[in-house]
Amino acid sequence: MDLNVLKTFLTAAELNHFGKAAERLYISQPTVTVHIKTLEKELGVTLFERTGKKIKLTEAGRSYVTHARKLLEMYEDGLTTLRSFQQGYTTKLNIAVSPLIADNVLPFVLRKYVEIHPEVEISIDIIESEQIENAVLYEKADIGLSCLPCYSKELEATVLYTDKVVLVAPHDGRDFESAYPLEEEELLAAYHVFTHNHPAYWDELARNIQRVYPYSKMMKVSQTHITKRFIAEGLGVSYLPAGTVRRELLEGRLLEVETSAFPLPEAKTFAITKYQHQAQKGFLRFLSQFRL
What pTM was computed for the model? Predict the structure, then answer.
């Protein structure tokens, strides 16, 4: 079967228009018509109903769309595998990673890993933690590195790291050897609290903050790296996993503030897998040596 014919069929099925399919594929409309007729003859069914210039899939056509996609995917997967072998790779790992985890020491870990394992081709997909479970479940990723556990019985979630959550404030230039310590109550009265930069703990934490400090003002900022930038600019404070601000604290760009009004949560990093193949297990063993 000519794969170009399959591509033409799928494009026409998506657009419901032979002319638009021709434009997208950079071929003539008569060529589209020939491709569709060739496929219909080979399959022995009518794939499209034609009413003037309008077309729509027949029941048989709708049924065949899924099979056509699978055939193209198999072909493209085969090409990818061959190219990988030509480049010296013998194993491939697709990893789905949350932005928060990817923003920490993951680049350092990956650099070390590929130095030791040049035979492994790694593909990184940065997606939100809420999407990682499905990415692994439907085999779009071999490993998921998430801030959330998984709930599917088909998957296994392993806690890689547990990190304390700390209150982080901007550095105001004081001499902290002689100045009095910053107080949580003082900060929450003076600054906005940036919330929901971590997918696991903020709903309960926000309730605790409002219960103890009902006057506090909150602002949702969904990304950790933006939260840190806003804090450094003096726009507010936030409760963040200690590992995500380790460098900023060491360099004095941000300050950690002691808290006691209510217990702070822990932030966990989960490795999510569907299969325990050698490549997955080897990568996770290597990863567990580092703090993300």
Answer: 0.68
